[in-house]
Amino acid sequence: MKPRAPSRLPGVLLAVALALGAAPREGRGEAHDLRAHYGPRDALVGRYPVLPFDAPEGATRVDVALRYDEAGGANVVDLGLLEPGSQELATSAFRGWSGGERSEIFVAVDDATPGYWPGPIPAGRWHVALGLYRVGPAGVDVEVQVRTSRGPGGPTPGPGRRPAEPIRRGAAWYAGGLHAHTVHSDGALTPGELALAARADGLDFLAITDHNNTAHQRDAIEVPGLLVIPGEEVTTPGGHLNVWGLAGFRDFVDFRVLPGDPALQGLVDAVRARGALASINHPTGECSACAWTHAVPEGIAGIEVMNRDARGLAPSLALWDVLLRQGRRITAVGASDFHRPGEGPVGAPCVRVWAEELSTRAVLQGLREGRVVVMADAGTPPPRFAVRAAGREAGVGDLLAVRSGGPLEVEVAAAGPAYAGGRVDLLWRGERVATAPLAGTLPVRFQRWANADGYLRVHLFAAGGAPLAITNPIYVALAPR
Description:
By secondary structure, the chain is mainly β. It has helices spanning 40-45, 191-200, 263-273, 313-325, 360-368; strands at 12-17, 29-38, 50-55, 61-68, 76-82, 94-99, 104-108, 124-134, 140-149, 168-177, 205-208, 227-236, 239-244, 277-280, 302-306, 331-334, 350-358, 372-375, 384-389, 392-394, 399-402, 407-413, 423-428, 431-437, 444-449, 454-461, 467-471, 474-478.
């Protein structure tokens, strides 16, 4: 499938003044004043325009300043930067993206604004990348000032140091945060500060998922006991998805996919080919363009059913069950979507992943296999959920083959003060079929009889009714006669 090329210059171009041909004097540079007008149509059919400028030989820095009238919030224009190279979807030419968080950015040989990559400044045709997030009825006039300059420059930094893996050996339920932001997008903390907060909240691993860039890899993070997984929140106009486990330095997933564009499948395929996982975020989110309106591509590994906004829990669970009943093995996760202190802990909600060790490879494998319990916080221990049939036992993420009409013995054990006075619900194919009070450390037992292929899971609640834990399914398949 050939990726779609973004529109080059949508809208009515008022003026593009390119200062070409004159070699910059040492310490000064070339100035480029780029101007364009975009209307409401452009936000729908040309959402990601680019404005070109040329960088001369010997340049060591590019500065970009974006100006436009926000019109009281009616206009929101995002900002990014592309070096010479292909402008098609999935290009590797992106030097960074700051969305609507910044209006002035720079990239240089030895440094860059958060969200952008430092490195050599190749001569040739660069592009200021824009995102027409919101355009009012009157349209918006955009002015971009670009300056290329020369200077001595230092060495280009490589990836920031991270602890050697595995962080810890041995199989366990590891607590993790899968959705959190830093200063490299719209978060308030540096990657190091976020990692310290995650460990203080009791997390064993943290995926950093800044919007549309992976520049957090520039920063050193060495927090004892914490595994840091490179990630990205791919923020499209049809919803957001997290990607976990991008292994290469500067590895990045493009985001310029409109709702209904079949190119999304190609992006998910490329993520899987790299050994990473893609998971839908807050599928019923109420912020602009946050709700999932794409089709659900084949190969999606997860769906975020629990977010800090509890209003999305019930509809997100309903969507997950629709997919499960279609035979899609998609893992439910929960995450805080942390941006800044004051919102609550990094680990509320979070996941517990059964992994053979605390390493990126093992955690991703646990997520891939559905060995996950969604937890309201990192301090409450996960429940034990098991199903037995014909002398065999299955746990979360397992498949249990049974004969038609055969008994299924379900056992749930939950320890910890948070469960006191609470209850457990048993669900079959997403429908609640039994409920029982939690009685201290005593296990709760249910019995079912296998009458079809399907899946069982349990939801556990505190005494006041707040959700504490949602397990992923144990799958049941009728054995052939």
